[in-house]
């Protein structure tokens, strides 16, 4: 079903509100987890658990960054931003990737310090219980955030879910190292931490790659498929130069079509309008379509650059 620009704008505003609500809920969960780890880590004088708590606070910081970004990204298009503010969401994803990178460096420092100076946590049953409980909370947070990220097609929520998953693996590494240390293998703490650091680096790379793809206007739709939909519209003789960009949930498309040169300007515009309606129906994520209409001409004319536009 075709929707008007006003209806699509309202839908985007509603989507933004839902994403902000999810981020608020996740922020509360992340800070509860971080607070529990920090308090228990300080009481037990465990550097590993305290560091894991700081890593969880990075998760909370990314949620705050996401809330600020979504507040900006949800603003309608204006004179300075005629294509809207959606890319601020991608910028926030880059910020999350940077936060993961910072956590990765801290994790590497801790690992090397443990290996070189034979430092490890003092293992107690209560410490293990706290770590397991916070691990369960993080698993639920990751699952919920990933679900809503896919539902709302939000690169920000998906990036933050990946970030929280990195915290899950850090906690698993801490638990594994605590177990091995208790069994008499103190070096295991640093070795496992280095392995987690590699995983965290891979997560950061994936988030940054996705955000850079959005900011660098990577094609969002298959040009051949778009052209196939277009040439199926009555009055379209051919379609070429299909381009698309934007985010997964808000895509902008422009293309060129050729029509019967005997059509009037009004008739040519009607063909262009039909193309727009067809593409909006085929791709619900498309928010704007720009159709350049040209009269059909032979290869010789095209080579000489005779491409008058009716747009």
UniProtKB/TrEMBL annotation:
Location within or outside the cell: Membrane
GO molecular function: cadmium ion transmembrane transporter activity; ferrous iron transmembrane transporter activity; zinc efflux antiporter activity
An annotated GO cellular component: plasma membrane
Residues annotated as domain Cation efflux protein cytoplasmic: 225-296
Domain annotation Cation efflux protein transmembrane: ranges: 23-215
Keywords: Membrane, Transmembrane, Transmembrane helix, Transport
Pfam families documented for this protein: Cation_efflux, ZT_dimer
Bilayer-crossing regions: 21-43, 86-105, 125-144, 165-185, 191-208
Record GO biological process: intracellular zinc ion homeostasis
Signal peptide interval: none
Chief localisation class: membrane
Topology within the bilayer: Multi-pass membrane protein
Annotated InterPro entries: Cation_efflux, Cation_efflux_CTD, Cation_efflux_CTD_sf, Cation_efflux_TM, Cation_efflux_TMD_sf, CDF_Transporter
Family to which this protein belongs: Belongs to the cation diffusion facilitator (CDF) transporter (TC 2.A.4) family.
PANTHER family: MITOCHONDRIAL METAL TRANSPORTER 1-RELATED
UniProt name for this protein: Cation transporter
Organism (species): Myxococcus llanfairpwllgwyngyllgogerychwyrndrobwllllantysiliogogogochensis
């Amino acid at each position: 079903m075709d929707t008007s620009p006003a209806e699509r704008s309202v839908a985007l505003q509603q989507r933004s509100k839902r994403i902000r609500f999810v981020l608020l809920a996740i922020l509360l969960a992340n800070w509860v987890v971080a607070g529990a780890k920090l308090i228990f880590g300080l009481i037990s004088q465990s550097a590993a658990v305290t560091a894991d708590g700081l890593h969880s606070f990075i998760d909370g910081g990314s949620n705050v960054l996401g809330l600020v970004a979504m507040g900006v990204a949800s603003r309608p298009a204006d004179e300075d931003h005629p294509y809207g503010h959606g890319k601020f969401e991608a910028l926030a994803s880059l910020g999350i990737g940077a936060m993961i990178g910072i956590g990765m460096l801290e994790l590497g420092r801790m690992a090397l310090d443990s290996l070189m100076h034979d430092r490890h946590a003092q293992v107690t049953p209560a410490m293990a219980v706290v770590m397991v409980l916070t691990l369960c909370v993080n698993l639920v947070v990751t699952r919920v955030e990933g679900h809503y990220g896919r539902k709302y097609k939000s690169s920000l929520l998906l990036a933050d879910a990946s970030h929280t998953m990195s915290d899950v693996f850090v906690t698993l590494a801490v638990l594994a190292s605590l177990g091995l240390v208790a069994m008499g293998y103190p070096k295991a703490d640093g070795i496992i931490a280095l392995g987690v650091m590699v995983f965290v680096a891979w997560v950061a790379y994936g988030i940054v790659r996705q955000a850079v793809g959005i900011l660098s206007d990577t094609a969002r739709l298959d040009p051949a498929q778009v052209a196939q939909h277009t040439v199926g519209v009555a009055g379209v003789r051919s379609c070429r130069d299909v381009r698309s960009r934007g985010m997964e949930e808000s895509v902008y498309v422009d293309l060129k079509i050729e029509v019967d040169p005997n059509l009037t300007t009004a008739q040519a515009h009607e063909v262009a309008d039909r193309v727009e309606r067809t593409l909006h129906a085929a791709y619900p994520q498309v928010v704007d379509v720009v159709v350049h209409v040209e009269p059909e001409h032979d290869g010789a004319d095209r080579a000489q650059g005779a491409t008058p536009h009716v747009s």
